[in-house]
Write a structure and sequence with these properties.
The chain is mainly α and 131 residues long. The chain contains three helices and no strands. Helix content is 56%, strand content 0%. The longest helix has 47 residues, at 32-78.
């Protein structure tokens, strides 16, 4: 199976490196079928180049970028969220949200999103437990 994959890769590389041969006769003397067959040569070469570019360049780059993103996010999540400071100009809402209790956003996360005017949920629960 590996030998077959290597053979396919070699054939793709060979056809991607090749260039379209010159036309067998002047285009004015060619019929429609010959012109069509000649025009398909360039598209197969281009198709093989894009196939190689996709699998040999873009897929490894995507994998490397995913690994990089994983380590950056892992490092970012090791420390907690920033301290909550109740700024008045940030928490102005004309009316409550139409879901839940009206204070939490639609994509609310208890660890990372603070409730306006109260702070983080886990801080509020710790204060209630102490009292």
């Amino acid at each position: 199976m590996i030998a077959r994959a290597i053979g396919m890769l070699r054939s793709r590389i060979a056809s991607a490196r090749s260039k379209a041969p010159p036309p067998p006769k002047p285009p004015a003397n060619m019929n429609m079928i010959e012109i069509d067959q000649y025009n398909k040569l360039g598209s197969t070469i281009s198709q093989d180049r894009w196939w190689l570019f996709t699998w040999l360049v873009m897929v490894p780059l995507c994998v490397l970028q995913s690994v990089n993103c994983y380590y950056i996010e892992k490092e970012h999540n090791e420390h907690g969220p920033p301290p909550y400071i109740p700024y008045d100009h940030i928490n102005n809402k004309a009316k409550a949200y139409p879901w839940g209790d009206g204070e939490k956003s639609l994509f609310h996360h208890p660890k990372w999103n603070a409730i306006p005017g109260k702070g983080y949920e886990w801080e509020v629960k710790e204060d209630e437990d102490e009292e």
